[in-house]
Amino acid sequence: MTSDPPEPPPHLTFYHSIEFAAGRRTAGWPVIVPIVEMIIGAMRRLNFNGKRVLDIGCRDGALAFEAERLGAAEVIGIDSDLPAENIAFLRRALNSKARFERHNLYGLKTESFGLFDIILLPGVLYHLRYPFWGLRLVRDLLADGGLLLVETATFADANTLPLLLCPTGADSPYEPTSCTFFNIKGFTDTVRSFGFAVVDQRSMMNLPPHDPAVAAPLPIDRTVFTCIRDRHLDDAKVMAYWDGQAAGLPQWTELPQ
Ligand SMILES: C[S@@+](CC[C@H](N)C(=O)[O-])C[C@H]1O[C@@H](n2cnc3c(N)ncnc32)[C@H](O)[C@@H]1O
Q: What share of the chain is helix, strand, coil (3-state, %, to 5)?
């Protein structure tokens, strides 16, 4: 007996658990199912109708396919390690028009795909060794008034200071590729400095803040942030300085008193 669509070829392994036909799902990683559900919950609070959407670090495409289901006019998924066979299987099974390409986030320019109305950056920021540069590049891909939805691992603390925990090697609370853990204030202030306002923010576990007297384990939560790009928040002078384009700008010569 054959089923339509067929089961995925047995040599494929999936990260996302995706319903590819009624009641039939890819066997993804169980541990990420609640995280993906939280991201999809945040997506469903937004209006995707007619929007151009970029899903950065799309993996098997669960979120790109969801954007398409939510009415996006055009969806592009990119990943530096794109599982092309998984994507081909799922596009066919879901009859999807979403486009997927292998790309490194750090190589994305406006000329790559034009501007987007919504950019999804889930499960990627905590893997970035150059997080500020990554966010800076993503900012330039978004139309004014556009939305950036970031889901990331967050360091749960009292949020009195804007912090970035940047462990390497065995110090990572996850594994060595996970090296960037903002606290909520660190993330919010960072994106604010790039011209974004956080308009929605929800954490999965709402962990109690880190107690410095207790060395380990570090409390790492997962948080989804919805940020709106607002050019009025830009401080062009400071941004130019950070970009190394300070020549000709008045210099900051005052020292703190
Ligand atoms: C933890 S998975 C998250 C997958 C999906 N976004 C989600 O939230 O379910 C991280 C993905 O980001 C991709 N990635 C990591 N660094 C990247 C980069 N510099 N450019 C593009 N993709 C990257 C990885 O290949 C991987 O597929």
A: 30, 25, 45
Q: Which CATH number fits domain 32-242: 3.40.50.620, 3.30.1330.10, 3.40.50.150, 3.40.50.2000?
A: 3.40.50.150
Measured in Å, residue 105 CA sits from the centre of ligand 1 at 9
Give me the mean pLDDT over the 53-71 stretch.
98
Predicted confidence band at 5 (pLDDT cuts at 50, 70, 90)? confident
Which residue's CA is the nearest one to ligand 1's atom 27? 59
Specify the residue with its C-alpha closest to ligand 1, atom 12: 57
* 42: nearest Cα among 221, 220, 201: 201
pLDDT digits (tens, 9 = 90+) for 203-254: 999 998 998 888 778 999 999 999 999 999 999 989 999 999 877 666 666 6
Convert the pLDDT of each residue in 154-190 to its tens digit.
999 999 999 999 999 999 999 999 999 999 999 999 9
| Residue 94: pLDDT over 90 | yes
- Side-chain-side CA neighbours of residue 123 (13 Å): 21
User: How far apart, in whole angstroms, are the C-alpha atoms of residue 199 and residue 148?
Assistant: 10
Token pair recorded at residue 183 = 């606290």
* Residue closest to 136 by CA, chosen among 109, 101, 168: 109
225: which strand partners? 150, 201
| C-alpha 235 – ligand 1 centre gap (Å) | 30
Domain boundaries along the sequence of the chain: 32-242
Residue 55, both tokens? 């899903």
pLDDT at 2 exceeding the cut of 80: no
Task: Look up tokens 């937004």; give the residue.
Answer: 46
